[in-house]
Amino acid sequence: MKITVLAENTACRSEIGCEHGLSLFIETDGVSILFDTGQSDLFSENADKLGIDLSKVTLAVLSHGHYDHGGGLKRFLEINRIAPIYISRYAFESHYNGTEKYIGLDTELKDNKRFIFTGEEYKINDSLTLYSKNSCEKIRPLLSSGLKTLSDGKLIPEDFRHEQYLLINENGKRILISGCSHKGIFNIINWFNPDVLIGGFHFMKLPLDDTLAEYAKELASCPTEFFTCHCTGVEQYEFMKPYMKNLNYIKTGMTFEI
């Protein structure tokens, strides 16, 4: 499996742009996948610079309904005319950062015929399956981190029911792609027990203290190899790295193999 980072908060070289968001190009077992689209058209611009033809992508997956992961959806629909886009049935609900800033998707796109709306589990093929895990028991409480959704005209704390995870089975390995791990990285590890996890931990607002150190030690004890990014936070990553031999950071423009 080969993965190229098309958009992330940081970049590995100056000619490649970066932004707060995430977009991955995944090549696995004869299938090419666009996982998330960042917050703008940048993923497409970077793909061109990296020699990746997004018009030939086999399928796309949206991890959840926030602008920094689905802001480039319109651009992808323009440049790729064939790929189905797998997206949670809840992704176009209204999402807010606190009480003011709308951070959801462009609702004008929601009726596009290319979208395949998913639920608790959706098997794409023998190697690729999407899961929401909304009905699964959590070993750690869900933290909304101030994020809210609109329900019956009122803003309430997020339950992130619109977040889904892509599990890839390849060569005997279980590789999990998680956009932001909003439902809790420890819950997600408990649910899937993956060999590899790629995605953010949503630790970017956590202080660099004993609690974060304990989180790092707990993740270090997992048999999982982590490739983290985006909402983990660079400072938080650098703080955790000395505790975790199994932790790596990925940046825009990087290509790595698993």
Order of helices and strands: EEEHEHHEEEEEEEEEEHEHEHEE
Helix content: 10-25%
Task: Provide the low-confidence segments as ranges.
Answer: none
**Main sheet: strands, sense, barrel:** 7 strands, mixed
Number of helices: 6
Q: What is the first-to-last residue Cα distance? A: 5 Å
Strand content: 25-35%
Overall outline = globular
- Rg, please? 17 Å
Report the count of strand segments. 18
Neighbour order of strands in the largest sheet: 8-5-4-3-2-1-18
Mean pLDDT: 97
Structural class: alpha/beta
What's the quaternary structure here? single chain
Characteristics of this structure?
258 residues; alpha/beta; seven-stranded mixed beta sheet; globular
Descriptive notes:
The protein has 258 residues and is of the alpha/beta class. Helix content is 17%, strand content 29%. The chain has helices spanning 42-49, 67-70, 73-79, 185-192, 210-220, 234-240, and strands spanning 2-7, 23-28, 31-35, 59-61, 85-88, 95-97, 101-102, 115-118, 121-123, 128-131, 147-151, 154-157, 165-170, 173-178, 196-199, 225-228, 247-249, 255-257. Strand 16 (225-228), helix 6 and strand 17 form a beta-alpha-beta unit. The mean pLDDT is 97.
